Amino acid sequence: MGRTVVHGELYVDGRPLAETATAADSLNPSPAGTIPQLLAGACRAPLSAAGSPGRLSALLRECAPGAVIVCDGSSEDDLRETAVALAEAGRPVIAAGTGGFVGHWADRLPVARRYAPLELTAGRTLVVSGSLHPASRGQVRRAAQAGLRAVYLGRQPDSETVSALIDEDWAVLATPGDLPAAVSSRMGALVGEALARQPVDCLVVFGGDTALAVMSALGVTTVESAGELLPGMPVSIAAYAGRRLVLVTKAGGFGGDDALLAIKQNLERAR
């Protein structure tokens, strides 16, 4: 997904985090990307940086219990070798990392393998994009150009917005980008109204705050992981109003312009 860590600093598509749209996000700005410095500001545990899996192995032999080690990662090989170093450390560790890392880590855990993929089917689908990130807004524009019905919050009365969303097998509720921070909760309420009038089989949600607001509005407190639809786009299953609801979520800053169209293509292929 273009996220790498070099010398403890987070880069997005080769640029330091401070130079990206995430740094100026109106809800959760993240201008600081030097991970050891961020941790040091709120953590009193011993802190080290491991620039390579070899260095990580050495630190794991030497560090005190409760120490924190920040690992670099610029490739799949880096992630895989880091997971191997942790698995061979011979001491208890807690790994905190990305979805890209967790697969390598889980492969080396001494646990029984009982995973059975859930059958994925999606018919009527509602897309909710509350993210203000330029990536998500571009994905909605590209999908609208390709023929998907896009309804923008605030450009018509809420009752008309809900009616427009339930008239299509595929519809997108999006923000025009000039609304206040309460936009997520408002979108969640509209989704709740739309689903009360016309159930859907699948929800696609862009943005973490939006996903939380939508689930809260629907009264959903638990979802079951069902894997990934596409890299960086997990699929979950939720129970809502006595129905099985497929949930696809994506971080606001992830994906290229065709991401929403790719989601649609993959969901329709799964029917």
Short description:
The chain has 271 residues and is α/β, with parallel strands linked by helices. It has helices at 35-40, 53-62, 76-87, 99-107, 134-145, 158-166, 183-197, 208-218, 259-269, and strands spanning 3-6, 9-12, 15-16, 47-50, 68-71, 125-129, 149-152, 170-174, 202-206, 224-230, 233-240, 243-250.
Keywords:
271 residues; 9 helices; 35% helix; 22% strand; globular
3D structure, described in words:
The chain is an alpha/beta fold and 271 residues long. The chain is 35% helix and 22% strand. The chain contains 9 helices and 12 strands. The protein has a 7-stranded mixed beta sheet, sandwiched between helices. The longest helix is centred in the C-terminal third of the chain and has 15 residues, at 183-197. The two termini are 27 Å apart. The mean pLDDT is 89.
The unreliable regions are: none
The order of strands across the largest sheet is 7-8-6-9-12-11-10
* Succession of helices and strands: EEEHEHEHHEHEHEHEHEEEH
Please give the largest β-sheet: 7 strands, mixed
Into which percent range does the helicity of residues fall?
25-40%
List strands and helices in order, with pairings:
Elements: E1 3-6, E2 9-12, E3 15-16, H1 35-40, E4 47-50, H2 53-62, E5 68-71, H3 76-87, H4 99-107, E6 125-129, H5 134-145, E7 149-152, H6 158-166, E8 170-174, H7 183-197, E9 202-206, H8 208-218, E10 224-230, E11 233-240, E12 243-250, H9 259-269
Parallel strand pairs: 4-5, 6-8, 6-9, 7-8, 9-12
Antiparallel strand pairs: 1-2, 2-3, 10-11, 11-12
Helix pairs in contact: 2-3, 3-4, 6-7, 7-8
